[in-house]
Specification:
Elements lengths: L3 H11 L2 H8 L2 H4 L13 E6 L5 H14 L5 E5 L2 H9 L5 H4 L7 E3 L2 E3 L5 E6 L13 E5 L7 H11 L7 E6 L5 H8 L3 E6 L10 H11 L3 H6 L19 E2 L7 E7 L12 E8 L2 E7 L7 H14 L4 E5 L5 H10 L5 E4 L5 H13 L3 E3 L4 H8 L13 H15 L10
Parallel strand pairs: 1-7, 1-8, 2-5, 2-6, 6-7, 9-15, 10-13, 12-15, 13-14
Antiparallel strand pairs: 3-4, 4-5, 10-11, 11-12
Helix pairs in contact: 1-2, 11-12, 13-15
């Protein structure tokens, strides 16, 4: 029996150019029910789905409908400016592709201008301060579970979402157990729609379905990335979210800044992990995460030295496997008076991290607020030494900091633990 999509394509093929275009761009004809805005008086539509489930198309079509109705100004927010333009605006299912040629907006810098005068701002969630000042009537936020400083970016956007009779926002994402996503799910003003990769299989390449979907089906990663299921903790993870205790106000006795420099300093290099931690009696407190990307050598050295002075640290602990004397030299160029303790990694990332994770399990480490990006990376850290497929630069720096504070000397036993 032919699918609905193949039947529609066959119908469009029998029509002349103008009629075929009307069918092709009639989103309500093609959309699955989950891809259409839910009814009701909602502020946030949270569309959670697996990879390739049709989230981007739904977001682009929602923005297209708002623009056609004259709702302005609009905000399109991606993880980075590059991703926002490449995926949300110009992507295969992006705004330009789903809009008839004569109705398409022009992209002028980071501003979209529609023929009817509607304007939209393309924004990067990695720079929440850019949200100060602009006002919007609606916003489409893509892959919110991947945003760095997600809660800060989301909160800044809310202050600007104040125009029109009913300001609204759509958040599309593959799920990850971030604080922001949990917050949105718990909000009574959020309408939640869920989709799976399988729901959209008719639009996906056979090679993807056989090589990727078949491989990860019924795995934990597949449940998250294909089924769109929110997985709280990875099986056998070193860290779980229940381990993160809030820090108190006890005076801190010793503070270190730990640095995990990247091999290179180019725009596509790994981040430079920079984590600040302190010792409070028999416990440790993680104070700050200043991880930087892109991480040009002098840029990360300056940031590490600023963190050293801002927190009144005793020493900068720096991994020197990749840089050797260069790491010391860079820090000395910024401030020759800053003491540096060089450390070398002689074991794999997982083995180095296990003793530090044990400290968390014993309740010996607490976290200051604002460390969600670090916590996300910790919970995604796997036995392969990667975190969500990326180098765990924040985790590496954390491990060096807590090893220096807690494991390079005998830690007294804590009564009552």
């Amino acid at each position: 029996m032919p699918s609905r999509r193949s039947s529609l394509l066959a119908l469009a093929g029998k029509l002349n150019g103008e009629a075929a275009a009307r069918v092709y761009f009639d989103w309500k004809t093609w959309a699955r029910p989950q891809q259409l805005p839910p009814p009701g008086d909602w502020t946030t539509w949270l569309l959670i789905g697996g990879r390739g489930s049709g989230k981007t198309r739904a977001g682009a079509e929602w923005v297209r409908a708002l623009a056609a109705a004259g709702v302005t100004p609009l905000a399109l927010v991606g993880e980075t400016m590059t991703e926002a333009i490449a995926v949300m605006v110009k992507g295969e299912s992006g705004l330009m592709r789903v809009t008839p040629f004569g109705e398409r907006p022009r992209l002028v810098g980071s501003t979209l201008i529609w023929p009817n005068g509607v304007e939209g701002a393309v924004l990067s969630a990695s720079d929440p301060e850019r949200f100060r000042g602009p006002q919007f009537a609606a916003a489409w936020c893509d892959e919110v579970a991947k945003w760095p400083n997600a809660e800060a970016a989301w909160d800044m956007l809310q202050f600007g979402l104040r125009l029109g009779a009913r300001p609204r926002q759509l958040a599309t994402t593959t799920p990850r157990p971030t604080k922001l996503l949990k917050r949105l799910l718990a909000d009574s003003q959020t309408m939640v729609t869920r989709m799976t990769t399988e729901d959209n299989r008719v639009h996906l390449a056979d090679a993807f379905l056989t090589a990727v979907v078949a491989r990860y089906r019924n795995t934990v990663l597949g449940r998250q990335e294909l089924e769109g299921e929110l997985i709280e903790d990875l099986p056998d993870a070193l860290w779980t979210r229940s381990m993160f205790q809030p820090a108190g106000d006890a005076p801190i006795e010793r503070i270190v800044v730990a640095v995990d420099p990247p091999v290179t300093g180019g725009p596509k290099s790994d981040a430079c992990g920079i984590v600040v931690a302190g010792r409070v009696g028999e416990r440790a407190v993680v104070l700050d995460d200043q991880t930087l990307q892109p991480a040009a050598p002098l840029k990360w050295a300056r940031k590490a030295v600023r963190a050293f002075h801002a927190h009144g640290a005793d020493v900068i602990v720096a991994e020197v496997n990749q840089g050797g004397d260069l790491v010391r030299s860079l820090i000395a160029q910024v401030d020759a008076n800053v003491p540096v303790r060089a450390v070398r990694a002689n074991r794999g990332k997982w083995l180095r991290a296990e003793p530090v994770a044990a400290l968390y399990a014993r309740g010996l480490v607490a976290h200051r607020p604002g460390l969600s990006a670090l916590e996300d990376e910790m919970c995604a850290f796997g036995a392969d030494g990667m975190s969500d497929g990326h180098s765990p630069d924040r985790v590496d720096a954390l491990v060096w900091a807590l090893t220096e504070l807690m494991l390079n000397e005998v830690v007294p036993r804590v009564r009552g633990i």
